Amino acid sequence: MGLAEKRLAESIKTDSLPAFESKLNNLAGYPIKVNIDWNTFTAFDTYPLSRLEIVFGDLESFVKKICTDDMGKEALKEKMSAINLTNTDNRDNVSMELKDATLFLTVQLAGDSFSSQTDSQIAGYVETLL
Fold first, then answer.
1. Which residue segment(s) compose the domain that 82 sits in?
2. Per-residue DSSP letters for 16-33?
3. How many separate domains does the chain show?
4. Could you give the CA distance from residue 1 to residue 114 in angstroms, rounded to a whole number?
5. pLDDT of residue 24
6. Sign (positive/negative) of CA torsion 72, 78, 84, 89?
7. pTM for this one?
């Protein structure tokens, strides 16, 4: 990790991430903690960090889709209290799993292409588990 990655990661940690968590909390009506495996996002260059805002947008939209009413908010609250984000450079490792009240997402923001779950894919997956 070079200086550019360190600066961008720190900016996300202090500015973007708190604002993003606040948006999720407002949409869901309860606190959702977002944990980021920073080492997997800073191991390459600034590209994965710069694409993190896109993942935040998909996650915000997913929570909005689930939490359209009190029934959705309660169902999500019972099953999910945190989101863990990990980055990979291998498309075969892109995955999502909801277990132990945590949504684990592995995205590919490094390497030769960009691959992550869309808001509809995440919502479709999580809705079946609520």
1. 3-127
2. IHHHHHHHHHHHHSS--E
3. 1
4. 20
5. 97
6. negative
7. 0.91
